[in-house]
Amino acid sequence: MEWVNYNQLSKINTVDDFEDLLDVINNPKLTEFQYLVNGDEWSVVKK
To answer: What is the H or E stretch that residue 23 is in?
Structure first.
């Protein structure tokens, strides 16, 4: 784990849902990031 500049994030490997998580962090209208599991299917919900 290491600190990186925000503008460098696109150049490093991150988890698949990292863009969704950043959206929740940076969007004042969003406050929740959840995984919903339906059998073997996982989906991201942002609220």
So the answer is: helix 18-26
Is residue 11 within 8 Å of 35, Cβ to Cβ?
A: no
Q: Residue 27's domain spans which residues?
A: 15-46
Domain-located, residue 6? no
Give tens-digit pLDDT for 24-33.
999 999 999 9
Contact by Cβ (8 Å): 18, 25: no
SS3 category, 7: helix
For 9, the token pair is 């994030």
Does 35 map to a domain?
yes
**pLDDT score of 1:** 82
29 belongs to a structural domain:
yes
